[in-house]
Amino acid sequence: MYGKQIEETETRARTIYQETTACLMAHSIRAVQTYLKRYHKAKQISVHLVPKMHESIERYSWLVDNGGDEAKIWVDADQPTDRKRICIAHELYHILLWSDPSVSDIPKNAAMSEKDAEEEFCDLFANRLCRAHDDFYRSGDAYKAGIFSVEFPVRANPKKPKIYNIDPDGTTTEVLGPQGSGLAADL
Fold this sequence. Notes:
The protein is of the alpha+beta class and 187 residues long. It folds into two domains: 3-139, Orthogonal Bundle (Arc Repressor Mutant, subunit A), CATH 1.10.10; 148-175, no CATH class. It is built from six helices and six strands. Strands 1-3-2 form a three-stranded mixed beta sheet, covered by helices on one side. α4 crosses α5. The longest helix has 26 residues, at 114-139. It starts with a helix and ends in a 12-residue tail after the last strand.
């Protein structure tokens, strides 16, 4: 009865899942946008995946930020997910450095150029940010915060799906309506 609709729904779910690669570090991108809006000037940040980028320009990521209200991060689509995350976080710190007038000059040693010093600090930021994300998800805090609290089981009647809250201890409880985390439409 619902065969075609179920198949289309599953196809859409796979397509959306594939698109999530472009959403890597979405919470961090949103946090940088919020920080800049709150303390300096609003900036829209987008991430674009480019196949074979490293082969053509010998870089895994690239930032285009002209100091205006938009910044674009270009990332090699063919690299592993963890490297994509690190690259996005690295470019986010460039955005923060270039957008925040309160950031003082980056310290450097005599053997290092200013650009090399900036790259070192961007790498440090990227590693710390990605490590903090990994620690959060591994520690179980994501479950406590309710980020993984909703499960939509496959049912015979897709018109009335049941929603279950999954507690950190693994117990499930049926709930009356959708819940979970999401990003506010406006900051």
